[in-house]
Design goal:
By secondary structure, this protein is mainly alpha-helical. It has 9 helices and 2 strands. The protein has one domain.
Length: 152
């Protein structure tokens, strides 16, 4: 899992994402942003850091996204409910019709549960997340009280 996340962070850095790396790899294969976003949605619940990197990049580059290609890729290799959360959060900060079109193709998670797996593993963190859950996460059937942005 760590190798996969490290590779995603390398790709995000290569694409201009706000991610700090201890060592940069120069041999990163370039992918379309829609494919990178889609794959990242499958790992965002494992890593708050990845979630914030994707959210920040998406907010700054929504005009570059081919919405249909992103939706297709997310259905194949990603998590549509996580994509919904990311687009909803970005849309709250910086409204754009592209987010609305993407969200229209997303469905909430099957059951209400903590968004981040690390929170689900901690009784105290879960309790605090439920007590202070943000509406943008609840809408997608997740519980989280965390929402940060890297850019201002």
């Amino acid at each position: 899992m760590a190798d996969r996340l490290d590779r995603l962070f390398q790709e995000w850095h290569h694409l201009g994402g706000s991610v700090l790396l201890s060592k940069k790899q120069e041999d990163i294969r370039e992918r379309r942003p829609e494919e990178l976003i889609a794959e990242s949605t499958a790992f965002c619940r494992e890593s708050g850091r990845l979630t914030w990197v994707v959210l920040d990049w998406l907010e700054r580059h929504i005009d570059l996204i081919d919405e249909d290609r992103l939706i297709e890729a997310a259905r194949k290799i990603g998590d549509m409910s996580v994509l919904g959360v990311l687009c909803d959060a970005a849309n709250l900060r910086s409204p754009h019709p592209g987010y609305e079109r993407i969200m229209a193709s997303c469905r909430p998670h099957d059951r209400l549960e903590p968004f981040f797996y690390r929170v689900a593993r901690s009784r105290l963190a879960s309790k605090l997340a439920y007590e202070n859950a943000l509406d943008v996460f609840r809408k997608w059937n997740y519980i989280s009280n965390e929402l940060r942005y890297l850019s201002q």
